[in-house]
Amino acid sequence: METATCTAPKGRPREFCVDEALGQALRVFWSKGYEGASLTDLTDAMGITRPSLYAAFGNKEALFRKALDLYEREKLCYMSLALDAPTARAVAERLLRGALEMQTSDFEPRGCLRVISSVACGVEAESIRDEVIARRKSSSDALIKRFEKAEAAGELPEHMNAEALSGYLIALLQGLALQAGAGASREELERLVETSLTVWPTK
Amino acid sequence: METATCTAPKGRPREFCVDEALGQALRVFWSKGYEGASLTDLTDAMGITRPSLYAAFGNKEALFRKALDLYEREKLCYMSLALDAPTARAVAERLLRGALEMQTSDFEPRGCLRVISSVACGVEAESIRDEVIARRKSSSDALIKRFEKAEAAGELPEHMNAEALSGYLIALLQGLALQAGAGASREELERLVETSLTVWPTK
DNA sequence: GCGATTATGTACCGATCATTATGGAAACAG
DNA sequence: CTGTTTCCATAATGATCGGTACATAATCGC
């Protein structure tokens, strides 16, 4: 009865690495968006056939969700880590610099998969869009919670609350991702981060 | 030889108003994006048939360009007007409040057509994407020019140049549009604008 | 009245979309 | 070996995509 937990490979073994294929699928979704990525694009990049894709991942939408999980786990990990910084300003700095580092990698697509997947789209992608927006909301809530701690610690200046500061910082991060996706140079993005940090309100 | 300028309607007259139909097409592109808007969506909203659409506007891409022209002419006019404000801060305030007003209209789609159309997409929309990015660059250049004037007037604080400030402000506007498109409430957007103005760097 | 011209409505085109039925190949247990 | 299970490859599914042929209807100058 314990066969469920042990790896008993019955039948013909799979000829490709699921994680590797998922990574390639992520890159395609990342650079083309959910609707812009066709199954041909995906299978070509993943090096597998359509039936293999469906057998291993379910369908296009399930594949996207798994790719989004991978993206958040591997590429967005700096966001939760940033919340551990000692001050609100340090949190903002880690978020901005983390985003900058990700957006200026030479080996990954530009732009943010979350941003890309949350803009207007056809009907087929609406559930995807809703889910991405929901996931972003939970990130936003975490940031608000962190800034509320800073607020309680008296870090925030007058007439500035946690929610307002959080929304403001997220807008900057979204703008950064958008400009990166539109082909902004590394210098432009660095300048944006530096300007944001210069302007950052401290008590 | 002057017949080119006069309106000589030869043949069967058109049964719909081109401008009105274009306005409806704009709303569809605005809420679904270029690729997300199918010809069926467009003709349904415009109240015309496919051949009428092609006869009047050329094809989907040409229709989008005309809709984009209309959008920039009618919905983005506040942007060029904002540049006439007396100070850099006043320019920023007009831009932020103008964007807020547009994003909180009860009768128009949320989000910004330019932002929507400049994110990642399939191959068919790449030329659209490139054009939108180019148009945004010219807006950005105009803003930089305006801030250079402010810089020359000594309005900008130390370690802050026109390009940096422009990129920063545009990032905020993009974040505003993105959050509006994702369903942010009017209060959230107002708070974002107020926070941005509170934080705005003055000498 | 008459062509000439242009718009409209129907019905269709080939291409591509996501998805899958089918048949054979490769591993297992017996 | 046989049977079972799972994977791979080919090729097809119906639906939808953007774009059009075609015939008809409405207005022109004459």
From TrEMBL, chains A, B:
Gene3D superfamilies: Homeodomain-like, Tetracycline Repressor, domain 2. Residues 38-57 bind DNA. Residues 15-75 form the HTH tetR-type domain. Signal peptide: none annotated. The keyword DNA-binding applies. PROSITE patterns: HTH_TETR_1, HTH_TETR_2. GO terms for molecular function: DNA binding. Keywords: DNA-binding, Transcription, Transcription regulation. InterPro entries: DNA-bd_HTH_TetR-type_CS (IPR023772), Homeodomain-like_sf (IPR009057), HTH_TetR (IPR001647), Tet_transcr_reg_TetR-rel_C_sf (IPR036271), TetR_C (IPR011075). The keyword Transcription regulation applies. This is TetR/AcrR family transcriptional regulator.
